[in-house]
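Morning!

This is the sequence you dropped in the shared folder:
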Amino acid sequence: MEIQVNVDCADLDRMVEFYCAALGYELHGSAGDHYRSLTAGDGRRPKLVFQKVPEAKIAKNRVHLDVIVGPEIDAEANRWEALGASRIEKVSEYGLNWIVMRDPEGNEICICDA
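The structure's back. Tokens below.
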């Protein structure tokens, strides 16, 4: 069984560029100007699929990515900001820490320590 995460977007090229740089993924395939898929070189992480849609994001995501990076969440969040993400808030609960971010199109991502 494989798992892939689909993300609606307006600018396929921008999102592919951002996520390849942020996650170390590579372009795997495409279907015209409507669809791009990305995979991790190690084959152990889920495939990401970006599909072009006409409507903009208007509400909070019901599904989001948690990127587990260990204790250096501030440094990783800074790196993501340099790539085009925006920082929303830092949260510490139940002995865990994470930084809520938005990708270039406003989709939420959490940079987590565990």
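Headline: The helical segments are 12-23, 73-83.

More detail when I'm at my desk.
O.
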